[in-house]
Specification:
Layout (H helix, E strand, L loop, with lengths): L1 E6 L6 H4 L2 H8 L4 E6 L12 E2 L9 E2 L1 H12 L7 E11 L2 H7 L4 E5 L5 E2 L9 E4 L9 H12 L11 H4 L17 E2 L2 E2 L9 H19 L11 H19 L2
Parallel strand pairs: 1-2, 1-6, 4-7, 5-6, 5-8
Antiparallel strand pairs: 3-4, 9-10
Length: 250
């Protein structure tokens, strides 16, 4: 899989995509990451990529010409044509399901904004516009790294344990179950006995119930998309009712 990122500070990607899990996956050829300097496609001696907005207002906007030229030029650097992603608070909120969908792409291009934003016309280049949440970042580079991380770890061979992405939070629309390691007792806090039992069937059942309880307690909005039996839905509802009663008593 190939990623391309167009940015005014392309060097910001180097350390992250070359470290830890991503670094090992990149070294094994599971994915490629190419960062491109947007200023390459400017035509003045100051390599200008921004200008004042028409109608006045705060800040500077990224100009359309370099972005249009960059997207076209980078698209032609390899096959197939990339799936082009822009980032904006106006975009669709990014979820694990989006990561799974994007992991099926052969090539993704990120166009990373800066300053006050981008000329609206550049969004005509986008196959999709993503939002990382209801907050504002100084640029799209961090968003591009987050999406890259979420996608790469789903690629075959990127993680050492093939089951890891299956058991994680948001897989199956549930948060991941609680996890513990040694020591079994610390400062009066004990690891649940079932996890020390060696009974893997019982452990699997405990983990399933624990994931449902945690999701109902912390992210009940996820339950609508979860594949739950009737008894599991009753369990989730009991947790929600108990939480609401507790909150009313505060």
């Amino acid at each position: 899989m190939r990623f391309d990122a167009i940015s005014v500070i392309p060097s910001v990607f180097d350390s992250y995509v070359s470290a830890s899990i991503l670094g090992r996956a990149k070294a094994r050829g599971i994915f490629e990451f190419h960062a491109h300097d947007l200023r390459t496609w400017t035509h003045d001696r100051h390599r200008t990529v921004d200008d004042a907005p028409f109608g006045g207002g705060q800040g500077m906007l990224m100009k359309p010409e370099p972005i249009f030229e960059a997207v076209e030029a980078v698209s032609d650097m390899a096959e197939p044509r990339p799936h082009v992603v822009f980032f904006s608070p106006c975009g669709k909120p990014f979820t694990q399901r989006d990561a799974e969908r994007l992991a099926g792409c052969e090539r993704i291009m990120f166009v990373c904004g800066r300053y006050e934003g981008m000329d609206e016309r550049v969004y005509s280049l986008a196959d999709e516009v993503i939002s990382l949440g209801d907050y504002v970042l100084t640029g799209g580079e961090l968003a591009a790294m987050i999406v890259t991380d979420a996608v790469v770890r789903l690629l075959p061979g990127a993680l050492g344990d093939a089951q890891s992405p299956v058991d994680e939070s948001f897989a199956g629309s549930l948060l991941e179950y609680e996890q513990y390691t040694r020591p079994a007792s610390y400062d009066g806090m004990e690891v649940p006995e079932i996890l020390l039992s060696g009974d893997h069937g019982a452990i699997d059942r405990w983990r399933r119930e624990n994931a449902i309880r945690r999701t109902a307690l912390m992210r009940p909005d996820l339950l609508d998309g979860a594949n739950l039996s009737e008894s599991e839905r009753r369990l989730a509802q009991d947790v929600i009712d108990s939480r609401e009663q507790s909150e009313e008593g505060c």
